[in-house]
């Protein structure tokens, strides 16, 4: 039996965190929610996370800084950034850094789920090819 896909959600806005976790659960994923980047980094879930959804602007460490910290630590977790304050320069920087998507809050649920499915398909395809 396949393990359920773990989606970690890092957002300082509790309502967004809860709504995103509920959406992931309804779609059949296993969500883990964290109020800030440090809580995620200090958790035991970093190595279990298949996809990371992180807010761009958070106190302490931004979503892009979290993505960079994970890469620096050798953790290549597909990361999707969400933001209530879209900025084309930040979007470009994030995508150039390897972030898989950059969605504006409130985001379209089907767009979020489609992005996750696309990532999971590409990961599965790569593992089959290896």
Automatic annotation (TrEMBL):
PANTHER family: CHEMOTAXIS TWO-COMPONENT RESPONSE REGULATOR (PTHR44591:SF25), STRESS RESPONSE REGULATOR PROTEIN 1 (PTHR44591). SMART domains: REC. The modification 4-aspartylphosphate is found at residue 55. InterPro entries: Bact_response_regulator (IPR050595), CheY-like_superfamily (IPR011006), Sig_transdc_resp-reg_receiver (IPR001789). The keyword Phosphoprotein applies. GO terms for biological process: phosphorelay signal transduction system. It holds the Pfam family Response_reg. Keywords: Phosphoprotein. This is Response regulator.
